[in-house]
Amino acid sequence: MSIEEYLDHFNKIILDLENIDITISDEDKAILLLTSLDASYTNMKEAIMYGRDSLTFDEVQSILHARELQKQEESKDESGEGLNIRGRSDK
User: Which Pfam families match (predicted)?
Assistant: First the structure.
């Protein structure tokens, strides 16, 4: 599942909870989102959670979007054209 799909699913759950009058603070939403990510996000989760005094849900979503864009750019760079080498002829 892409991070976009994951965030959509997470936000749907939050909205469903709000519809039944369960309110979750912004910081709690941010922490819930971070802790629900899989193991490939471990280093990023720790950096975000322990490197700040407070978290907001929007900040965490922005960071996840930025990481996804970075991964896409890296995969484009890796799948680009190969190195072309032309040698000199003796003529």
Answer: Retrotran_gag_2
- Residue 86 confidence (pLDDT): 65
Look up residue 65 and give its amino acid.
Answer: H
The residue assigned the tokens 């469903």 is 16
**Total residues found in the chain within this entry:** 91
Structure tokens at 80: 């680009």
Contact of 72 with 65, CB cutoff 8 Å: no
Mean pLDDT of 5-18: 93
Contact 63, 71 (CB under 8 A): no
Domain boundaries, the chain: 3-76
State how far the Cα of 67 lies from the Cα of 44, in Å rounded to an integer.
9
